[in-house]
Amino acid sequence: MVDRHFSHPDLAELYDHFNHWRVSPQDDFYLDLVLNARSVLDVGCGTGKIQRVARERGHTGRLVGLDPAEAMLEVGRRDRDDIEWTLGDLVAGPYDGESEPLGEGTFDLVIMSGHAFQVFTTDEEVRANLAAVRSVLSEDGRFVFETRNPAVRGWDAWSPERVRTVDGPGGLKATCVHRLREVEGDLVTFTSDYSVQGWAEPEVARSTLRFLDAERLNAFLAEAGLSVSAQYGYWDRTPLTPASPEIITFARPA
User: Residue 5: what pLDDT?
Assistant: First the structure.
């Protein structure tokens, strides 16, 4: 099931307004990796912001944006038609049966940005998706992704007191409010209320994310035949510590 954030057309239209280029230092971090790879698979690409900018900056290789939300892909597709926008997921592949299969050993770089890895909420989902990553990576390829460090309890900041307001479509003011709903083990559930001037009522999306610590994460990677080559705690590549907000991982086929 795709979160309403991404599947509802009105919310997909808002995505790039709340997540504009360089809203986070992760954008330049991933862009540098993409520009230096010949073939790139962006898993959970959303609107494909990183790959769209890579094309603008002169990337001439293969760029594939994979996402299970058609509404998000449509936003990216309207901007650029020189990226392979693929509706699907790593395990099932393309949903339409017509897009080019991902193929074994195809990609020099696989990325999952925007904490997309955290949508895999069960051991079975983590194992299946990491096995699929290992399958599509070339023998010298890299898998790069990030997940929030559970030790710093970032979910404590998801409260109605933190309201984000941006200029939305047509210059209308748009707001987003996160509300923490439940923490159960390593699973965190929250809702997001989106409002735009002129809407009769907010659109509400409910999400559950998994917060794996580095030890468990690395065990899953090893099980999938992926070897961790580096891990960082932030986008400036500072070392990973218990106080780091992120667990940014570089992995290669073992």
Answer: 60
Q: How far is CA 111 from the centre of its chain?
A: 8
Phi-psi map region of 126: left, alpha, beta (phi>0 left; psi -120 to 50 alpha): alpha
CA-CA distance, 219 to 217, in Å (whole number)? Answer: 5
Q: What 3-state class would DSSP assign to 136?
A: helix
pLDDT for the residue 11: 87
3-state SS, residue 146: strand
- Give the per-residue pLDDT at 7: 63
* Cβ atoms of residues 14 and 90 within 8 Å: no
Strands 163-167 and 137-148: unpaired
CB 186 within 8 A of CB 210: yes
Task: Note the helical H segments in 194-234.
Answer: 214-223
Residue-level pLDDT at 1: 58
Q: How far apart are CA 91 and CA 53, in angstroms?
A: 27
The vertex-131 CA angle with 150 and 109, nearest 5°, equals 80
pLDDT for position 97: 75
Q: Please, are residues 143 and 114 in contact by the beta-carbon 8 Å criterion?
A: no
The residues of the chain scoring below 70 in pLDDT are: 1-7, 98
* Amino acid occupying residue 77: R
Count CB neighbours of 82 within 10 A.
10
